[in-house]
Design a protein that fits this description.
single chain; 363 residues; alpha+beta; Immunoglobulin-like; Ribosomal Protein S8, Chain: A, domain 1; 3 domains; 6-stranded antiparallel β-sheet; 5-stranded antiparallel β-sheet; 20 strands; 34% strand
């Protein structure tokens, strides 16, 4: 005999009966009994009781189980943001990466929780990619409701390099009449050393906790862009690199012209240069890993030459950990230069991803 959910049945080998709640297969069904419990029963031990009057308690238990089965499961990794509509200091509408220290009382120690934050009135479809040695690797994708955050996972501080300059892609949707936004694709651009600086972690009302926010995109900026936007080509990036090399060889610039190294100076005689590729070019999705390394090394040489010309005392190059190729090439070049000494930069400030160069002839 075949059964379906809702059939009223009686037991053949004992007193009582109930209502079929679930059919597992043709040999096994689940039956809700008078006590409100759902039990598995072999189908051959049951018989349909037709329209016989059923116990009121069985009927209520059956309805409760049906309601539970129909309730959609909630995604525990997605939680609403805390919106303060009258707070002038709350962040502008946009999509952010939130880095939250587990130890709120001491944000410079312990693990870090990562959240992708949708602080917009739009539903957001997203994908995340990490750059490993010049190759993109898909990391996460999904859907985030409006004004919500998605938990991406917990990482150790040594893993933060993987997330610096990761690629975020988003598509925005809202039901009904609207002005569509263009899709966004860009880097989550930040320096890994930020997680070792206490002032990087500020109290964020959206999360009601201390966090370091990395901007993905802002809605007001997207609204000013066309729906279809021209992509950067590999040729345009290589042209930028060539212009940089031409400027390096040029000696005709007037002495009063500001130096490109000024933006890297943290003191009159000290500079700090971040060699992460996202700091050097706006878009590098079409470059292979050899091209990426060449761009970084060209900029390294340019900065080193300019630092010598301007008689700087010290320059710090932030190259990251990665696969170690960039650092190896930097060390090889520095070993052949006279008048300098170099070593790993202070770990407390830069982690394991920076090299410090001293010009002792300039002291």
């Amino acid at each position: 005999m075949k059964f379906k959910p809702g059939d009223r049945v009686s037991f053949l080998n004992e007193k009582g009966g109930g209502i079929v709640t679930k059919v597992i297969d043709e040999n096994l069904v689940h039956v809700t009994i008078e006590d409100g419990f759902e039990i598995p029963v072999i189908a051959t031990n049951l018989i349909k009781t037709g329209t016989a009057e059923m116990n009121e308690n069985i009927q209520k238990a059956y309805q409760r189980i049906q309601a539970q089965q129909q309730e959609p499961e909630e995604d525990e990794d997605i939680l609403p943001l805390y919106i303060s509509h009258n707070d002038p200091d709350q962040r502008p509408d946009g999509v952010y990466l939130g880095i939250v220290p587990e130890m709120q009382e001491n944000p410079l120690t312990g693990s870090l929780e990562l959240y992708l934050i949708n602080h917009t009135v739009f539903e957001v479809l997203f994908s995340l990619f990490q750059n490993h040695s010049g190759n993109w690797h898909g990391t996460e994708y999904g859907f985030i409701p409006r004004e919500s955050k998605m938990f991406l996972g917990t990482i150790g501080r040594s893993e933060i390099e993987k997330w610096a300059n990761s690629l975020l892609q988003t598509v925005f949707f809202v039901e009904g009449k609207t002005d569509p936004l263009p899709p966004f694709a860009g880097l989550l651009n930040f320096k890994p050393v930020k997680i070792y600086k206490e002032d990087s972690f500020q109290y964020e009302t959206l999360l009601r906790s201390k966090a370091f926010f990395v901007e993905g995109c802002k809605i007001d900026e997207l609204q000013q862009k066309p729906i279809f936007e021209e992509k950067f080509s590999k040729e345009s990036i290589m042209s930028l690199q060539e212009k940089m090399n031409i400027n390096q060889r040029s000696e005709s610039a007037p002495a009063a012209k500001p130096s490109f190294l000024d933006k890297h100076k943290i003191d009159d005689k000290i500079a700090e240069v971040d060699l992460h590729i996202g700091e050097l070019v706006d878009n590098f999705t079409n470059l292979d890993k050899n091209d990426l390394l060449n761009v970084q090394l060209d900029y390294f040489r340019k900065c080193l030459d300019q630092a010598e010309k301007e008689k700087l005392v010290k320059i710090i190059f932030i190259h990251g950990v990665g696969n170690g190729k960039l650092k190896t090439e930097i060390v090889r070049l520095l070993q052949n230069i006279r008048g300098i000494e170099f070593y790993d930069a202070p770990y407390a400030r830069y982690g394991m991803g920076a090299t410090e160069v001293h010009f002792y002839r300039n002291k």
